[in-house]
């Protein structure tokens, strides 16, 4: 590759832009080339030309404290039989500076230049006028790095590498990095992103709300972060934040999105686990509850025994354990948990080896026996409850079992449930786990029980804060219920060593938001206070309300699912559960949020179906009701219930990463996605023919626009640059007509 090395500095942390390729006043950009290539979006080609293809983009990012160096390697292919002249445009954050450029083509060595703001805008306007393609409007208001014209040989491949540097924004203990990329779902160019992150202070948490990542901790000051393979074609800006550790208290930070219509806005709170105290770590008391009914015979029983042995032997000396096994009757290794030592290990190995599967499934009594054991003082009580079937013995009512756990768990044991196979009551196991600050896990046929149990138990090491409570405070540091609402999770789970929490909710007013986190650390109680400045709320944080809405929708769906709990008797035929006004309210809110935020679930996927009439709200409600009744209300076990449990967990209650493709698992556990719904900035749009319809227009029930804005008109360009500072210009980048709500009225933008 040709490389540019003659660099000059514009400020201590960045290198100035290189010499101009086209200065203001020269010929417009499109008269120099047949292609304008934007790696974060696509190639714009003039008529009668085959577009140059972007085959792959690789990003290597180095972050040191608050500075970032980003290197983009773009691989291009020219499919045509003629040499093509092209220009590359790289949207970058403000105050970026080019520090390196290389090109492996045969032509004259090109240059690269960071365009000033006015010239960047001129470039955008020129593309809008000449190509009449709205795609680039997604980056209106951004700075641009522009390469000079260069040839790409006929049927040839070329690589372009550019490096830029910029200062990262910081908010207290949090530093944010953003790699600008398009939200377009129909441009599946694979990206590889690697980040080398280093800081002087210890790093307590690394988080991306936009993409799934894999993080490797090199040491307390150094992390390597890689884009997950499953997200290589996931669109949207890549966001990465890290929190610096704070001495003696958990690192915490808040993203806020303002929304006057709810009287405040939405927040996303990041909390890292507080550092462990110097004293002896809190001990654990673990009870393994094993199903030994007849259906467990064979490999499942062997795996369950192995899982129990592995869990018990992984305990530290001085911690406690017990084994309860059940079929038609319930037995136990010891009357109460015993200390882990060599003698008790030998005894429990022999006990586990003696278990033989035979009889029914007495879930009620097994849970009751586990909950009523005497507790070990100053130990965190954990239960690992395993079953492969439905309750068939003793109390079989789903409601009765659920209510017994709620009323009988006096010692606040955490019940981690494991459903093995498809014949388990998924809503029941989910509720038992969630109501006790635990999680549910499902082992599908051909999966290893031992591996799943070990994976969960491995996370339960080093408890540093149990029974945590998160509250909002008024200006007198007294608990208030008026500042925060609709918070998820509503019950904060126990915090273990290395844990991090992502809490979403709505806030009221614009005064600083004060919160306190407290919990037990052995016999002691620890309390931490935080204060967050809501003046930094911005519509650029559009991921916050969308993640909040995903959790809110999941909670509402689960309320419908739990309301459908059986009492052990057959349901009477012909009864409409949605005659209950409470269920109708849940249905309507699920539909409203799905439309407003573009969140499709298996219960609202019909919104993306071409034949669905988005203007008919009553018909939409009935469609949503039909799916909720047949799936959430009626499906209690089997694969049809398992898929709902997976969806509610991964894409709802525990979701911390955006899901722009609206992935979910259908009733056969097949992965489903759609490109007929676009989440753009803080809006959602549904495709109907040549139109993209704003979800807020759908909720209003009126799809008729009151006026028309023509693409490229002065009114259109004025709107583009009005929305750009708000981070909303991307809402105008959809191809085709856009029907959207603007300043309280419905308008159509004709592209």
SSE layout:
Blueprint (H helix, E strand, L loop, with lengths): L1 E2 L5 E3 L2 E2 L19 E3 L5 E3 L7 E12 L2 E11 L6 E9 L4 E7 L8 E4 L1 H15 L11 E5 L2 E3 L4 E11 L1 E3 L2 E6 L11 E8 L4 E5 L5 E7 L2 E6 L10 E7 L7 E8 L4 E9 L10 E9 L7 H16 L5 E7 L3 E3 L5 E2 L2 H12 L9 H9 L7 E9 L10 H11 L5 E7 L5 H10 L4 E4 L5 H11 L3 E11 L5 E2 L3 E5 L6 E2 L3 E9 L4 E9 L2 E9 L10 H21 L17 H17 L19 H17 L5 H15 L10 E2 L5 E2 L4 E4 L2 E6 L2 E4 H6 L6 E4 L3 H10 L13 E6 L2 E6 L1
Distance between the termini: 40 Å
Low-confidence stretches: 1-27
Mean pLDDT: 89
User: Measured on Cα atoms, how large is the radius of gyration?
Assistant: 29 Å
Shape: globular
The total count of strands amounts to 44
Helix fraction by DSSP (H/I, runs of at least 4) = 10-25%
Q: Which structural category fits the helices and strands?
A: alpha+beta
């Amino acid at each position: 590759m040709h490389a540019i090395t003659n660099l000059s500095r514009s400020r201590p942390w960045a290198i100035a832009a290189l010499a101009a390729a086209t200065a203001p006043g020269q010929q417009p950009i499109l008269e120099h080339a047949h292609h304008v290539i934007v790696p974060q979006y696509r190639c714009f080609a003039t008529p009668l030309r085959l577009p140059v293809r972007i085959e792959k983009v690789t990003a290597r990012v180095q972050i040191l404290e608050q500075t970032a160096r980003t290197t983009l390697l773009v691989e291009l292919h020219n499919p045509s039989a003629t040499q093509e002249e092209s220009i590359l445009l790289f949207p970058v954050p403000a105050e970026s500076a080019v520090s390196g450029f290389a090109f492996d083509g045969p032509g004259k060595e090109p240059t690269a230049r960071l365009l000033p703001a006015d010239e960047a805008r001129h470039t955008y306007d020129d593309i809008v006028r000449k190509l009449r393609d709205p795609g680039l409007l997604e980056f209106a208001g951004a700075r641009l790095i522009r390469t000079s014209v260069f040839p790409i040989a006929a049927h040839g491949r070329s690589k372009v590498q550019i490096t830029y540097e910029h200062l990262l924004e910081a908010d207290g203990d949090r530093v944010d990095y953003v790699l600008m990329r398009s939200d377009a779902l129909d441009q599946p160019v694979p990206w590889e992103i690697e980040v080398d992150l280093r800081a002087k202070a210890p790093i307590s948490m690394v988080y991306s709300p936009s993409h799934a990542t894999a993080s490797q901790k090199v040491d307390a000051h150094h992390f390597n972060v890689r884009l997950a393979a499953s997200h290589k074609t996931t669109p949207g800006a890549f966001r990465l934040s890290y929190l610096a550790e704070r001495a003696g208290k958990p690192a915490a930070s808040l993203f806020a999105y303002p929304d006057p219509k709810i009287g405040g806005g939405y927040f996303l709170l990041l909390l890292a686990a507080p550092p462990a105290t110097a004293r002896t770590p809190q001990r654990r008391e673990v009870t393994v509850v094993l199903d030994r009914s007849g259906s467990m015979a064979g490999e499942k029983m062997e795996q369950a025994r192995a899982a129990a042995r592995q869990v018990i032997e992984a305990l530290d000396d001085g911690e406690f354990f017990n084994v309860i096994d059940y079929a038609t009757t319930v037995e136990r290794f010891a009357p109460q948990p015993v200390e882990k030592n060599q003698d008790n290990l030998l005894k429990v190995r022999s006990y586990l080896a003696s278990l033989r599967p035979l009889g029914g499934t007495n879930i009620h009594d097994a849970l009751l026996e586990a909950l009523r054991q005497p507790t070990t003082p100053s130990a965190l009580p954990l239960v690992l409850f395993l079953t492969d079937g439905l309750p068939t013995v003793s109390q079989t009512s789903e409601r009765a079992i659920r209510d017994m756990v709620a009323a009988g768990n006096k010692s606040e044991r955490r019940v981690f449930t494991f459903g093995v196979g498809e014949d388990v009551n998924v809503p029941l196991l989910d509720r038992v786990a969630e109501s006790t600050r635990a999680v549910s896990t499902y082992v599908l046929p051909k999966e290893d029980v031992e591996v799943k149990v070990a994976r969960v138990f491995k996370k339960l090491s080093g408890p540093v804060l149990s029974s945590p409570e998160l509250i909002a405070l008024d200006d007198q540091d007294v608990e208030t219920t008026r500042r925060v609402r609709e918070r998820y999770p509503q019950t904060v789970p126990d915090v273990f060593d290395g844990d991090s929490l992502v809490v979403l909710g709505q806030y009221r007013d614009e005064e600083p938001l004060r919160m306190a986190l407290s919990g037990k650390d052995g016999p002691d109680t620890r309390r931490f206070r935080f204060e967050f400045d809501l003046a930094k709320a911005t519509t650029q944080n559009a991921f916050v309300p969308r993640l909040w809405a995903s959790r809110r929708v999941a909670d509402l769906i689960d309320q419908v699912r739990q309301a459908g709990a059986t009492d052990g008797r057959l349901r009477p035929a012909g009864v409409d559960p949605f005659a209950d006004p409470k269920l109708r309210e849940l249905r309507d809110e699920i539909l409203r949020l799905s439309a407003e935020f573009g969140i499709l679930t298996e219960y609202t996927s019909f919104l993306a179906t071409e034949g669905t009439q988005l203007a008919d709200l009553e018909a939409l409600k009935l469609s949503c009701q039909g799916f909720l009744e047949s799936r959430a209300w009626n499906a209690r076990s089997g694969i049809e219930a398992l898929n709902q449990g997976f969806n509610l967990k991964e894409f709802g209650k525990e979701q911390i990463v955006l899901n722009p493709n609206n992935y979910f698992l259908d009733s056969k556990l097949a992965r489903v996605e759609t490109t007929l719904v676009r989440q753009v900035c803080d809006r959602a749009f549904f495709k109907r023919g040549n139109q993209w319809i704003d979800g807020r227009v759908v909720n209003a029930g009126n799809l008729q626009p009151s006026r028309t804005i023509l693409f490229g008109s002065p009114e259109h360009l004025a709107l583009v640059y009005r929305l750009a500072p708000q981070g909303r210009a991307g809402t105008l980048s959809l191809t085709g007509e856009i029907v959207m709500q603007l300043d309280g009225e419905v308008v159509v933008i004709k592209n």
